[in-house]
Amino acid sequence: MRTIFLPEVDSTNEWIKRNIDSLQDGDVVYAGIQTQGKGREGKKWHSPPGGLWMSVLLEKEAPYNF
After folding, report:
1. Which is it for strands 28-34 and 53-56: parallel, antiparallel or unpaired?
2. How many Å apart are CA 31 and CA 36, to the nearest integer?
3. Per-residue confidence at 65, pLDDT binned at 50, 70, 90?
4. Do the Cβ atoms of 33 and 53 come closer than 8 Å?
5. What is the pLDDT of residues 11-64, one digit of tens each?
6. String of b and e for 22-40 (b: at least 16 CB within 10 Å)?
7. Nearest-CA neighbor of 57 among 47, 66, 44?
8. Which strand ranges, in their side-by-side order, compose the sheet holding 28-34?
9. Is 32 helix (H, G, I), strand (E, B) or coil?
10. What is the CB neighbour count within 10 angstroms for residue 4?
11. N or C: where does the chain have the smaller number of CB atoms within 10 Å of the terminal CB?
12. Domain boundaries in the chain?
């Protein structure tokens, strides 16, 4: 497991999707600010400075439904 900090990102989840080939199972991506955070069922996720915004890649080979 590695932790990757991004000062600002559109979405930690989208970042993982774009960079999945260079990531490992268990990697955690967290950000100071998300400009386009997403909640469940496509809902917008307000993620201003000062929070903890993160995504965890559990299994690269799992059949995810993005």
Report:
1. antiparallel
2. 12
3. low
4. yes
5. 999 999 999 999 999 999 999 999 998 888 878 888 888 899 999 999 877 766
6. ebeeebbbbbbbbeebbee
7. 66
8. 3-9, 28-34, 53-56
9. strand
10. 19
11. C
12. 3-56
Q: Put residue 50 in one of left, alpha, beta given phi > 0 → left and psi -120 to 50 → alpha.
A: left
Using DSSP's 3-state secondary structure scheme, residue 20 falls into helix
The single-letter DSSP state of residue 51 is S
* Separation CA 64–CA 52 (nearest Å): 24
Tokens of 59: 């299994």
Using only C-alpha atoms, the chain has a radius of gyration, in whole angstroms, of 12
Amino acid (1-letter code) at residue 30: Y
pLDDT at 54: 95
H or E segment to which residue 13 belongs: helix 12-19
